[in-house]
Amino acid sequence: MKKNITINLCGRLFQIDEDAYEMLQQYISSLRSSFGKQEGGDEIVDDIEARIAELFDELRQQGIEAITIEHVKDIITRIGKPEELTGEDSAGEEEKDEERKGSSWEEQARSAGQKIYENVRERTAGKKLYRNPKDKMLAGVMSGLAVYTNTDPVIWRLLIILFTMCYGIGIFIYIVLALVLPEAKTPEQLLQMEGKNVTPQNLADVVVESEKQSVQVQRPNLIRMFFSFLLKIIFAFSVLIALVVCVGLFIGFLFALIATVSALILPLHSTVPFSLEAMGLTGVWLNNPIVLGIFVGALFLVLLIPIYSTIHMLLSLLGKIRPMGVIQRIVWIFLWVVAVCTAVPLGFTIADYHNQYIFERNDNDWRVSYQGVKMYSEDADFLRQGDWNLIKAENCAHYTASGEYFAAVDNDRYLDAWNDECKEVYQAERREKVKPGIYQLICNARAEGPGPCIYAVGEDKLLQQIPVNGNSGGGLGNGWSTVVIDSIIVKGDSIAYGVSTDEAFTGKPCRAKWFSATDFEISRVGDLPKK
User: Fold this and answer.
1) Partner residues linked to 500 by β-bridges
2) Angle made by CA atoms 303, 305, 310, in degrees to the nearest 5
């Protein structure tokens, strides 16, 4: 509600609102500034003030208690602007043209922007934006914007049709505005929409006008009929889509509710429908259940908010409950957008967890058992064919490898173990039958760091650390070097040899992420010394 003030104009008291008083004061000040240069200018301004007072008196005699900004605008139009009264507008036109030519582009743009701002401010001064029920085709959105900006509603209706042709953006804009903007239902809201004072006289005029509109039949208008028909088609199509979407959302909500309850009741790896395993959610549940919980909560909001809003709208149209307020609508729209922006990226995250889980499960299904250790069939075949025994096999990503052999034979396989944190505990051993004597062990090996050792066990245990060359350099290339253990004394009938990273066996901590070893050869180099 606006504040009215009392002014004294030519010895007469008038009630006027603040916006109208500010415009009147600016008008009189501009008059005094324009006529102040002329002889007898003050008397001219006094005469104009007296004329304004007479016009105010006429308004008061018509029953208008307070002067509004619309009344002041009308009086200024009737009397004339200062430049029109003084004749400066035509006399100084050439000077203004010269000034415009001399002004820079930035100044012209700033002046144009200021004029636009002042024009918009003047058109919307003292008004509130509502949906207009007196001139609506669907929800009264475009008519409300026209009243607020003091423009023709046809312009706004053409704009919304043009936006609708651009991938349906106009439909979305119209629906959002129809949800956010309240409808001017009461006489007070109708006056606020038009920027008029809420006075008993104005309220009575609104009521009388509403009664007349309910009795009178509007004359047919071809343009109005065309827009009405076109907008009704768009609205019917939008309502149909909204109903289909709402039904789909309700069905989706029921499925989501059933799935949530079933997932909490059924066992983790159950294959029954709506279990975590059947829905592909086992991976995220095992790795990060918080992500799954947040996703389910966001999904429920995405489904429930449109359902609740639709039911609330239907009940309000039936008069069962009050319509949502503007703040309430904005809050629900904000929450729904947040829920969508939360659920979508979490959905991709859950898909990544599911793919990782499926890969690991399939990877485990493809593995076979060799001496109680799960490994790929290629690893098991190589160890079995080479008669290798796995003494230790812990924290190893694999047990053999191929592809970087120095002899440039890509399919040659060799002993290999890898752990990115250097925690592999690996020992592979082979035993051969031999005669007593002195032997030599030769093999090719490489390591990423210190710790892995080649060993041979005859009468004593002999160790030789694998040279640290990584996968480049070395005496043979690709990091490979020849490792030799001499003077292996064998008094029995067999010799054991192999590779180990076990600190308990080698006495050296493993600081290598990986190692490789192959081409083990035992050769007899001498007899045992005679006693």
Assistant:
1) 427, 453
2) 105
Res. 90 pLDDT band, cuts 50 70 90: very low
> Does residue 367 contact residue 316 with C-beta atoms inside 8 Å?
no
Residue 190 corresponds to which amino acid?
L
Three-state SS string over 462-503 comes to EEEECCECCCCCCCCECCEEEEEEEEEEECCCEEEEEEECCH
| Helical packing angle, 141-149 and 169-180, nearest 10° | 80
Query: DSSP secondary structure string, 32-90?
Result: HHHHTTSTTHHHHHHHHHHHHHHHHHHHHHTT--EE-HHHHHHHHHHH--HHHHHTHHH
Q: What pLDDT is attached to residue 69?
A: 84
CA angle 25, 31, 33 (to 5 degrees): 105
pLDDT tens column, 163-208: 777 766 777 787 778 777 888 777 777 777 777 766 656 666 666 6
Sequence-distant (6+) residues with CB within 8 A of 443 are 454, 482, 483, 517, 518, 519, 520, 521
Angle at 419 between CA 443 and CA 521, to 5 degrees: 10
pLDDT of the residue at 91: 47
* Three-state DSSP state, 239: helix
- Identify residue 15 by its one-letter amino acid code: Q
CA 226 to chain centre: 39
